[in-house]
Amino acid sequence: xTGLVVLEPPLNHSGPWRPAGHARPEPLLTAPxxxxxxxxxxxxRPRSGIRHVQQGYESWTFWCGQRANSRRNPLGAAELPPxxxxxxxxxxxxxxxxxxxxxxxxxxxxxxxxxxTPKTCPGSRDERMFEWVSHRGSVGRCLACGEHVAxxxxxxxFNGKVALTTHEPGxxxxxxxxxxxxxxxxxxxGHAACACLLENAR
Length: 202
What we know:
Blueprint: E1 4-6, E2 26-27, E3 30-32, E4 34-36, E5 46-52, E6 57-62, E7 67-69, E8 75-77, H1 88-96, E9 130-132, E10 139-142, E11 148-154, E12 161-164, E13 185-188, E14 191-194
Antiparallel strand pairs: 1-3, 2-5, 4-8, 5-6, 6-7, 9-10, 10-11, 11-12, 13-14
C-alpha cells in the first residue's frame, strides 16, 4: 500500500451559486491514508478534499462526516501508528467503498455517491437544453449529450413548455461536476455546463 489514497469527488447537495469575484474551489485528488488534527482523539480516513483557491487553504471531509482543514495543521500518516486508535466508521466505510484493502479478508460493503453516468440524460424535459435541428420543429440536439431527440410540448396548460423527450444519455454526455454531478446543468456559451462555473451574486 502506498502512502496516499485516491479521494472521492466532493459531491454535495449545495447549490452552484457563489458571489461574483470568488474563485471556484478545486477538488483534491489524493490525501494521506490517515489524518487527524491535534484536538482529535483518533485517526480518521479522508473521503474527499477541496482546495479553496482564493482563500489559500485546503479542507478534507472524513468518511465519518468530521472535517479538517490545513489552517489547523492536520497530521497525515501512510500507516496507522502502533497503538493509536482509528475511527471505526471511517475505516469500515473507506475499505467497504474500495478506497483501500482490508487486512484479514473481511468482506465489507459501502456505496458512496459517485459520478456514475445517469440512466436518463439530464437534458431530458429541460427547455433550455436543446437547439433545433429540424425545420419542422420536431427534432432537437441535446446540449447535454449531443443526441438528436424528439421535441414535444409538455407540462400542461398552466406550466407548458417545449423540451426534449426523455432519453438515455449519448456518448458525448458532458462530464459530471465533482461538486454537483449533473444536477445543476445550465447553458454557457451554447454548451451545457454546471452552473457553479458561473459567477453569480445570488
